[in-house]
Protein 1
Amino acid sequence: MSDDTTAQNEQTYAVQKTEDEWRAELGEERYQVLREAGTERAWTGELLDESRSGIYTCGACNAELFQAGTKFDSGCGWPSFYESVRPDAVELLEDNSLGMTRTEVRCAACGSHLGHVFPDGFGTPTGDRYCMNSLALGFTADEE
């Protein structure tokens, strides 16, 4: 079990499932990103070019995470947002993997890995860039 998965299991979240239940529900590709802190290849995510109004949710538990109005084109190859829907919607943790220090973003409801946040969202109201994996997100468009 990876350190990330172990850390997820040490925290108590509102949505609780065994790793076997997560794996069966999510499938291998989503499980690898959401539960094992993996990263999808840049420029491949189905939500990268999504531009409709709506809400982005956790791909594991459907908790609301980001409003479409906070999404911006950061040029990094992953969906980027400048703030979460509420400060308590996401959990921010220090990530020292890959020989660098970053800030991991997890769903506060289930502890699933979403991506990382960086202080380089130049030109945004917050200066932050929440760089998220498409595989870690769901999207529901507003009804028109």
Protein 2
Amino acid sequence: MLVRLMYASRAATAVDQEELAAILRTSARRNPENGITGVLCCSGGLFIQVLEGGRSQVNALYRRICGDARHEEVTLLAYEEINERRFAGWAMGQVNMSRLNPAVLIKYNECARLDPFAVSGAATVALFDELVAGAAIMGQG
């Protein structure tokens, strides 16, 4: 059974481009072994990630993330059983923040700021759908 999980968290310490690239490389290497696909967005000390795959594999990865000292305030935004993957092409894609249209952000938030803690999980899911449709996702693996 396939599931899709979306969570948000705050970075415990500042995440620079080198550390983010290392996280993405590790995900691109490990996720295919576990049948996991997804997308990561990191901006302004916030993480938003979508994970797709088998229920037990996704749940196990989410438990590891919850225990990862790099994350604070890990918050489940959405969890659903799915018939097909939305992010099948990415072992772990990354939101290209340079292509993020502020008008898309303000569509789902009070201001043009990425803040999953200020909006509903459904709004964040809809935002990710628009990012995929607008080709604002870069591939990793």
Protein 3
Amino acid sequence: MLDSIHVGFTGLQAFQQGLRVIANNTTNLNTPGFKASNLQFSDLMDASSSGTKGGEAALGHGVDALASRVDWRQGDFRQTGNDFDLALDGQGLFVLRDGQGQTRYTRSGQFQFDAAGVLLNRADGSKVLGRSADGTLGEISMAGLRTNAGKATEVARFTGNLSSTATEQTVGSVQVHDGAGGEHNLQVRLTSLAPDKEGRWKVELLDGSTSVGEAELAFEDGLPTAATSKLSFSYTPAGRSAQPLTLDFSSDVTSFASGSLSTLAMTSQDGFGPGALTKLAFDATGVLVATYSNGQTSKGVRLALGRFSTPDAVRDLGDGLYAETGGVPWLLGAAGDAGFASVRAGSLEISNVDLSREFSDLVIMQRGYQASSQIVSTANDMLQELFGMKHK
């Protein structure tokens, strides 16, 4: 009967541990990146019963609560509207480096840039690590991304119809940029060389009333010839050095009879002025993308991810942080690589706790605890009865 009390007591201890695990899971229902745990149970055998006696099985010695196991199932996603709240859709964990230089991992992507422009984990201030093209791990910084320098125009593209029966056509509002990003409004004047040179036009580039240069554009069957469809000039803006400038008539430019009406116009150019940073966010592959007021974008470092090959290689540190253990190395990669998750910016992965399952387990733990306490109580009553028989 004393053994029965001990067996019942092991049940009380085990189910108490199980209740603690369930309580921890349910209280972290709203913790971003939290992974639920499941308690493992194992039966105990009497150490003195090494086998069977007289054909009877050895007696059990109760139950033991083993270490809990983390449930790594994917959690749902919740949009936050914060560009630096990141969720992982798939396998992998964000890689962090704490103040002591230790590598840590997390699924809770609650990040922010500090005053120095370095991406940090809001929970503990650890630096979020990125991975360069050569695989080197390093901090993710805004350095070099706050402004975007201007670019001089190299090619101006034209489309439309240049009336073959017209004698002259001037295309205004040819806006180009110099090397410092300054804007200049040029003009292109086209003068027909017919009848001496049918289908050929003199093209003159003008900066106000000053001629930058001239070239010749030829049409065959209403289309520009390949040799003359791209005209090269050397343009020197006031106070700036000379820059090459190409007028491109090679696409969607025609020359058919349409009276004096021509629709030829510049449609695009590849220069732009300087821009200030307007938005900073991560794309699905974990690349930091900066957007500027001049419409340009620039890419920074790519988020690094870690992935374990066995759950035995993971140690739970609390605060949503994990570390390597057991001497089993983790696999390192980048978001979007084969075997690693993609990134959802502006969202967080919420806890994967399943309340219905937790409440079902809670009932089981409660019944198990009650049954174990009843065993202890019954064995105690039997002992009391035995002591009573002795006194009689």
Protein 4
Amino acid sequence: MRSSATNSAWLRRYRARSEPRLRLVAERPGTFDGVHRRNLSKLLRIVHREGPLSRARLTEQTGLNRSTVAALAAELVELGLVEERAPDPTNRVGRPSPVIAVHPTVVAIAVNPEIDAVTIAAVGLDRRVVVRDRVEVDRLVTPEETAGLVAETIMRWRRGPLRGARVVSIGLAVPGLVRASDGLVRLAPHLGWREAPVRVLVEEATGILTIVGNDASHGATAEHLFGAGMGVEDLVYLNGGASGIGGGVIVHGLLLGGAGGYAGEFGQNRPGIAAAADRRAAGGVLEDEVSRSRLLDALHLKHADEPTLARAIEESDASAVHDEVARQRRILATALANAVNVLNPSVVILGGFLATIAERDRDGLAAAVEAQSMPAAFELVELRTAALGEDRLMIGAAEAAFADLLDDPGRAVAG
């Protein structure tokens, strides 16, 4: 990493030679009309979430007439947000209908700063992870260093895998409390960030619109829209990462934010521990007891990404590893039962290292949760693990980054 002085000078040089990344589309008659804008948004959102669809299918799903769908699709093509493909040759019924798909060059940058690494990825509007870098660190990165690393990575990718791509925006998934109104990181305790204006820092370093949110909330959104929670209206998501445990709650299909945007901090709850021998941190919170670092210690590992950690646990025959996994599962079961009793979800999804310890015996974990839950609250609950794997935070952060574009495609497109 650069020193703070070197980093600041580098940021100034980068900003001086950066080109604007966003431009406003010239206003056309009707472009910003409310109904037209909503219809344009609806069409783009459908192909973003469901993938390529024929104009005939889009006509059915939107309830609009064929000529309106054709005009909207043509406008999105002109904006460079979708492309029109030849009709599906296997569909021989009726008149062939062109297929509409999001344009593969439209991407958002997703960033997840953690205590042991900063992960940066480019995610397409079609949800493909185009390129990903995991930069391992041996000390905590500052908000300024994070901004510099993001700017440097984007500049390097523009000469390589993102040559010709259009970066719409940047989404940060931060393990901490993020104020919803302006993206200020109030507290990311494991990173040592307090009242950190990371959104402003990244925007200044890159010239690109930036959105900042809690990592687990982004994970909950991704799994709800595209993963294990698709079609589920009420779910609880818990994410286990290097910085502890966070969570997200979907209620009636919407992410529960709370008054300031801080809802879902399950990791800061005091766990109920039935056996005194299971306690490791006197007066500790859930993430002090159910901990990735404790698993790494049992495995005698310093660093590991999610697949490496899962593989190491699966392949280990050490009793210390098996005992630590079993201890964490017992405490996790109580925490999940409390969430079930309070929130009455139909699905509970576990991501990160929580998914790894759940998969050791998912039925056994579910039985332990049921034993501590109110019968009526648990009767509809299904315990699942994250379907998007290590992509979930990247996809969730990108979804937040794409939000403005999806809401109003006629306003801002990549420059």
